[in-house]
Amino acid sequence: MSRHDAVSNETLETRYDEYMMPIWKSLNVPLRRASDCTVEDFDGNEYLDVFSGISVTNVGHRNDAVVDAAKAQLDEFVHGCSYVHPNRPVADLAERIAEITPGDLRKSFFCNSGTEAVEGAIKLARKYTGSKEVVALEMGFHGRTLGSLALTGNHTYKREMGPAINDAVHAPAPYRYRWGADADSEAAFADRAAAEIEHVIGTHTSDDLAAIVVEPVMGEGGIVVPPKGWLERVAEIAHDHDALLIADEVQTGYGRTGSMFATEHFDATPDILTQAKGIANGLPLGAFTASPEIADAFESGDHLSTFGGNPVACAAALATIDELEGGIVAETAEKGAWLDDELAALEDDFDVVGDTRGLGLMQGIELVDPTETGPRGAAPAPAKALAATVGDELRDRGIIVGVGGYYKNVVRFQPPLTITTDQLDRTLGELRAVLEEVTADA
Ligand code: PMP
What we know:
Layout: H1 9-19, E1 33-35, E2 38-40, E3 46-49, H2 52-55, H3 64-74, H4 88-100, E4 107-111, H5 114-129, E5 133-137, H6 146-151, E6 169-171, H7 176-179, H8 186-204, E7 209-214, H9 230-240, E8 244-248, E9 272-275, E10 286-290, H10 292-295, H11 311-349, E11 353-359, E12 362-373, E13 380-382, H12 384-396, E14 399-400, E15 402-404, E16 410-413, H13 421-441
Parallel strand pairs: 3-14, 5-6, 5-7, 7-8, 8-9
Antiparallel strand pairs: 1-2, 2-3, 4-10, 9-10, 11-12, 12-13, 12-16, 15-16
The protein binds 4'-deoxy-4'-aminopyridoxal-5'-phosphate (PMP).
């Protein structure tokens, strides 16, 4: 008899209600077990997972190589604090990250989550530059602890909890669908969006800039892919102000966009690169990596984390990287390009699909009300309720997707990268059926 036998979805939710803070309410699908791209709940229902626990289980749920590596490490030791007891899994992983990250990025600090990686990166940027201020992007997401919350450009996450510690200033996101439809070309929009950052530095800071922090593709903001040339310009602006470019690759790293890191799609290398989510395929681990020159600004005692760089998580990360390099990243690029085209076709077939966009297997469709004009621009009004309905209907048909974005009107497709084209095809078929159903009701 399994320890789960007496549990149903309902009894589980009752205990959640009783003993958990009510944060979980908007989430769904109780999880009994999972394998590759399939998730099973406590009532025996199976789902195709097209969201991978918010973009985490990149090499598939319970990937054999990752599970074996973690089990082998459990038999050696579980904890020693990697900053007190130098150990092999952490050293091996740090060396491996130096190999797979772009440019001169070489030395890492390990923590347990994305938000910690971002906060640590800011501390390092301050220590290295001797400056204090930080610019981030409107609609960007960098975490929910009070330091990262300052960088997160979305009041939804701050309401009744601000002001965040060390408030940052925010520049407009490179969101062409809403803010750049009138730009003559992608290049013209890239120039304009970069000029906005310069303007914010000019008007909202005292030019004591430590860093500009950006997501190379915005995740929680609604899968916003910047125009070509933009990231390069942002790096130049940061350096013109003696500041660092921090790329927050917590969501985009580890193969998600069809390259190991999303910054590789652009001709700019960040000074500090943050990682978490997919790094260990679900074991809690975060990191930030910098060039030796920058990293060596940290001295002993400047930063630490008791659990950071846990050896079991690091062993899992090493196996995850091997799996990714064994062909998964290359396949992600191909499957992603195909999915991107298939989703783009929805724009012609459904008025409510305002925009489709993404890189690799980080794709989104933006749902709109074509009869209403949206805020601050020419694009139609965001259709938040419709996006929620599409998410619910897909779940009822056995498919888990994400629903988010600044306007909460973006349906997100971020499956394990091991998803097959048949499974993506099934997702597209169900998505079309749901869109037909909801638009027929209108
Ligand atoms: N940065 C980015 C870009 C993210 O997408 C997230 C999580 N959605 C975070 C930071 C925060 O990560 P965590 O939830 O592990 O703190």
